[in-house]
Amino acid sequence: MKPLQCLILLMFVLFASAVARKNIASGGWSPIKNISDPHVTEIADYAVTEYAKRSGHKLKLEKVIKGETQVVAGVNYRLTLAATDGSSSNNYEAIVWEKVWQHFRNLTSFTPVHA
Ligand SMILES: *[C@@H]1O[C@H](CO)[C@@H](O)[C@H](O)[C@H]1NC(C)=O
Ligand SMILES: *[C@@H]1O[C@H](CO)[C@@H](O)[C@H](O)[C@H]1NC(C)=O
Q1: pLDDT (tens digit per residue) in 41-78
Q2: Ligand 2: distance of its center to the CA of 110 in Å?
Q3: CATH of 27-112, one of 1.10.10.10, 3.40.50.620, 3.40.630.30, 3.10.450.10
Q4: Pocket perturbation via mutation, ligand 2, pick of 54, 97, 108, 109 by most ligand atoms within 8 A of CB
Q5: pTM of the predicted model, to two decimals?
């Protein structure tokens, strides 16, 4: 190969890998269009119930505020939700990983957010 062709090819490869890295870094999260979808509510309810079970805190889902999904050998749901312990209400960010075909669902993260 001529040096110039070689340089152009090299630049193309660098550019393509930079684009690929950027896509991975942003994680490919896309907003859930309709957070009133019963399945979204079900995921949120699972997250709150699971967190309550693991932490020993009483917590009940009030509503889903917003949500995003990411496709990763299944679907990751990242939901902002409001939950109450009976006396006060707080916002949380929950991440639930679901593989529908395996009936697999796991709460990977549940953290308070300050709105
Ligand atoms: C969102 O989902 C709910 C429940 O399925 C449905 O009643 C409502 O019409 C949907 N809204 C939109 C904008 O699609
Ligand atoms: C579910 O997620 C928690 C927290 O990330 C992890 O400790 C646990 O091993 C996971 N369970 C399964 C079945 O993947």
Answers
A1: 999 999 999 999 999 989 999 999 999 999 988 999 99
A2: 12
A3: 3.10.450.10
A4: 108
A5: 0.69
